[in-house]
């Protein structure tokens, strides 16, 4: 088996002038296509276990090829659980809420608030808001710590996502925004402690 990363088929002739594969001389590929049976497959969205509209990547592609079937990624497994309502009977989530009820504490939701669907899906956060509503937890005992994106989504789109989760909480009558910070700080991956420290201090002081 030979895997060629980045080699694809564009079904839109109007883009042939910008299609590197079409513009290149590919005698070996041309011969293989003419000589052997072949078929096109979708490599994005739910066809490879990702949300609709999300393009595939090397890891996802190899998982599906190796398994010989559609392998739902974590983000899609959560989405399917929300669709079939099993999300709302998840024992671990319900136990967390019950613990908060018994101890009189606050349930904290910390996460990336965006629909970039690389590290997060805003619909999942909204589903947690619905779960809290169904649980009957005191509305003041649910705090959301929003991390804005700006990398997998527009650098200026954070406000809109925070407003969406805030609107969901208002509609369902539970929770409040406790903190907001960008992923540049909260999700630093360059070993810059001063960035993570700003996030930590914001939540603990």
UniProtKB/TrEMBL annotation:
Pathway: Carbohydrate degradation; glycolysis; pyruvate from D-glyceraldehyde 3-phosphate: step 3/5. One of its GO terms (cellular component) is cytosol. Its cofactor is Mn(2+). GO terms for molecular function: manganese ion binding; phosphoglycerate mutase activity. Keywords: Glycolysis, Isomerase, Manganese, Metal-binding. Belongs to the BPG-independent phosphoglycerate mutase family. This is phosphoglycerate mutase (2,3-diphosphoglycerate-independent). It comes from Rhodopirellula maiorica SM1.
């Amino acid at each position: 088996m030979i895997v060629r990363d980045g080699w694809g088929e564009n079904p839109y002739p109007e883009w042939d002038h910008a299609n590197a594969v079409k513009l290149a001389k590919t005698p070996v590929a041309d011969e293989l296509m003419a000589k052997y049976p072949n078929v096109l497959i979708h490599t994005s969205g739910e066809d490879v276990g990702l949300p609709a509209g999300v393009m595939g990547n090397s890891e996802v592609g190899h998982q599906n090829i190796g398994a010989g079937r559609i392998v739902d990624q974590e983000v899609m497994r959560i989405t399917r659980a929300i669709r079939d309502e099993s999300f709302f009977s998840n024992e671990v989530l319900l136990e967390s809420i019950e613990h908060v009820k018994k101890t009189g504490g606050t349930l904290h939701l910390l996460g990336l608030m965006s629909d970039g669907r690389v590290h997060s899906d805003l619909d999942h956060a909204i589903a947690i808001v619905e779960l809290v509503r169904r649980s009957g937890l005191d509305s003041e005992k649910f705090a959301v710590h929003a991390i804005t994106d700006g990398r997998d989504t527009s650098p200026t789109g954070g406000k809109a996502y925070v407003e969406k989760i805030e609107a969901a909480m208002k509609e369902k009558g539970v929770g409040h925004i406790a903190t907001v910070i960008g992923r540049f700080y909260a999700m630093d991956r360059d070993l810059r402690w001063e960035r993570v420290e700003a996030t930590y201090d914001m939540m603990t002081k």
